[in-house]
Amino acid sequence: MLKRIGIESTVSDNYKVIENAEKLILPGVGSYDFGMTQLNNSGLIDLLNKKVIIEKKPVLGICLGAQLLTEGSEEGKLAGLGWIKGRTVSFDKNKLGANQKIPHMGWTEVFDYQKSKLFSDMYDDARFYFVHSYHLKIEEKK
Fold it and tell me: What is the pTM (predicted TM-score) of this model?
């Protein structure tokens, strides 16, 4: 997608490449513990912590990558990166409407109540495609 919109990017697990990165995207597909195990085995967690916590480089977590940003997940037993104070939790079926199903799949309108710069170009049509059964339960809203 980045290439399609004209943004240069590099996919890498190379220490030097990540060390020189100005922004990070942590993608992922799969189960929480497997993803966290892969990160733990990569030897890159200290570097990633330095980039995000100390250098304050922007990071975007996509799908499993977003879950790994939290302190942990109901889907697994391992600790997460802890960059976002909160946990990844499954949807509460008792709080869903009759037409809402798990996993949640399809295009869904997203409302940005705080008018974030991240969504500034999408206020008229902020829709995203979802395939998920979990969501982030954040302690600090900001």
Answer: 0.81
